[in-house]
Design a protein that fits this description.
heterodimer, A: 3 helices, about 50% helix, rod-shaped, B: alpha/beta, 8-stranded mixed β-sheet
């Protein structure tokens, strides 16, 4: 058996496939969860601002970067030069 | 209670349409009223696999747009009387699939059939999303191969977040169907084993369909493999999977290596 397997032994590739998948999917699952959070934040932040100021949807950027020690949440809102207050916003609040 | 089942995978060419036809036929052969719905607008093939390609007059898009009644578009299988097909359109744009239109058709099909089986297109575009949106249950078709497993993982994530059930805080019942499995290659370490795939995807196993020449033979003649050669190992796996979908609790059969005369004499290490 051992002599025979010495001649026929080849490196098996299935364990390599399994390990590669496990590492890759761990990353991808985390990344998908993260992008969802950024999308939710973007929507909610937009909704709050839109209550008071007319704003272009595309001018709000939310970025979430997860680092080893520190994670950053970056919110970039471009305001129009002369922004219009939405009528009644001040009165409502 | 009728059930909506989506057969999906993310990756193309893993056996969604073959499995839709085989599972649909197996359920219908077991006495259930089944409709299989092709969501692959522009690249329909379920009609061809079922041998009904020359009988298509109206399709899903015609029904959605009100050009035909549902009863006019449904094609009843000539061999299995409980099995019907709702074909996809071959010429229209996939944007013709609307949320409301699909919802209405699915609701109407649920009144007429025990099982509504939606054959998803590959990818994660609109057709695939709509095919899964109304599902109560999902069969995720996966080959024991890295790109298929990765895409299945993505699809499983979508079943948990982009369906009507998930929006209501409920869960789509997910099942893994491993297809094109070669037990000999898995034993030699050349192919991911069933346990590897199960561990990575961690959804319950519905069945293991071994690689089989009979699957291509069946598609050549336009018959579900469960009808064309019911005794074949692939067909038996589909029959078993269909019973499990119906709620029966039976153990999954592991495909056996085919052993030649020499291998039988010397044991399976001889390869």
């Amino acid at each position: 058996m051992s002599l025979f397997s010495f001649f026929t032994r080849r490196a098996t590739t299935a364990p390599v496939a399994r390990d590669r998948l496990q590492i890759l999917l761990a990353h991808e699952r985390a990344a998908n969860g993260r992008s969802d959070l950024a999308a939710i934040l973007q929507e909610e932040i937009l909704a709050v601002i839109a209550k008071h100021i007319e704003i272009d949807r595309d001018k709000v950027q939310v970025k979430l970067d997860r680092g080893a020690a520190v994670s950053t949440l970056e919110i970039d809102i471009e305001m129009p030069a002369q922004f219009k207050k939405i009528a009644g916003a001040a009165a409502r609040n | 209670m009728s059930k909506v089942l989506v057969v999906t995978s993310g990756k193309g060419g893993v056996g969604k349409t073959t499995s839709t036809a085989a599972l649909g036929a197996a359920l219908a052969q077991g006495g259930k009223k089944v409709v299989v719905v092709d969501f692959d607008v522009g690249l329909r093939n379920l009609d061809l696999i079922l041998g009904a390609e020359r009988r298509v007059v109206f399709d899903l898009i015609n029904v959605i747009q009100g050009d035909a009644k549902l009863s006019q578009a449904l094609i009843r299988d000539k061999r299995i009387e409980n099995l019907s097909l709702l074909p996809a359109s071959q010429t229209r744009d996939k944007d013709a699939l609307t949320d409301e239109g699909v919802a209405k058709v699915i609701a109407e099909l649920k009144e007429k059939f025990d099982w509504v089986i939606c054959d998803s297109p590959a990818g994660i575009e609109k057709g695939a999303m709509l095919a899964m949106y109304h599902a109560d249950m999902a069969v995720v078709v996966t080959n024991p191969e890295v790109s298929s497993v990765r895409d299945s993982d993505r699809i499983i994530g979508m079943l948990d977040s982009k369906t009507a059930k998930s929006e209501k805080g409920e869960r789509v019942e997910k099942h893994l169907l491993i297809t094109r499995y070669d037990p000999a290659r898995a034993a030699r370490g050349e192919m991911l084993k069933v346990d590897d795939v199960l561990e990575i995807l961690s959804i319950p196993l519905l069945g293991i369909v071994p690689e089989s020449e009979e699957v291509l033979k069946a598609s050549n003649v336009g018959a579900p493999v469960t009808l064309n050669n019911p005794a074949n190992a692939a067909s038996r796996a589909y029959f078993e999977a269909a019973r499990r979908l119906s709620g029966e609790d039976l153990p999954v059969t592991m495909p056996m290596e085919k052993q030649g005369f020499i291998a039988k004499l010397f044991g399976r290490r001889v390869a």
